[in-house]
Amino acid sequence: MRSIDRNSRTRVTALVALVLMAGVLAAPGVAQGPPPPYFPPQQLESLVSRIALYPDPLLSQVLAAATFPDQVPDAARWADQHHYLTGDALAAAIQADQLPWDPSLQALLPFPAVLDMMAADMNWTRQLGDAFLSNSGAVMDAVQRMRRRAYDYGYLRTNPQIVVTPGPYIVIAPAAPAMVYVPIYDPLIVYAPPRPGFFIGGAIRFGWGFGITAAFRPWGWGYNRFDWDRHAVIVNNNTWNRTYVNRNTYVHPYTVQRYAPERRAEGHELHERSEREREGYRGGRERVEEHGRREERGRQEEHDRRR
Fold first, then answer.
1. Which of 31, 89, 160, 172 is deepest in the core (most CB within 10 A)?
2. DSSP 3-state assignment of 206?
3. Is there a contact between 226 and 60 (Cβ–Cβ < 8 Å)?
4. Which has more confidence, 196 or 149?
5. DSSP string covering 267-304, please?
């Protein structure tokens, strides 16, 4: 009888252990949720093609900002409305408005054209952000492959706006650290062999330069770069460790103060433009539109020549 009781207790104990073990093994799967999306190399190359030739400091900010796609349209709107402000005046306006977006988005406010590009193609922005969160190393590898093509075909070279350093990894830095230029190029041209007679030197152009003064350091400027060998993205002198798994909890360290979205309900007013600023805005808007028309004419002429 005692033997039967002992056997029963043994079986019950083993059953309880199996149940507990099954619960432990199942728990991580519940906590992790769906796996990160997968992007094949060719798709990654397509995603990064329009930004792969950006200077490293700007590219790092774009990749980080793309992981907050829902904040992009509002940031692009604010940047467009305040594009007449530059340098310290712009940094002061950003601080004064106590903007609720992630600092990576605020870091791009000096570049309204970049934010406008991201806001105009939200499907691309979301995919870029998801790819960067899922596998930042694979995204960096895709950037290097596209840079290598542009360099090997002769398009990507040092010029008055950027310094291109070839090697195992191609580094693109601003020629003047405090002045960042956004390259303008057609991915269908710069990643393909040049046709006979094509002027390679005109394939990558540069518009206005944007002064990034010391006032922008709270948003990571001056401390952002790539460690290509380690597959690390450095933003504000810290490795960007936001991933698809921890995207809802990870907070990247910045020195800029963060503000909650609901702070406007407390009576905070946004930066008001003076009449002089509004006049400057209207004049600046006209210049931007004229610049866009010139760019469109140039693209059409190039298209006609290629035909």
1. 172
2. strand
3. yes
4. 149
5. TPPPPPPPHHHHHHHHHHHHHHHHHHHHHHHHHHHHHH
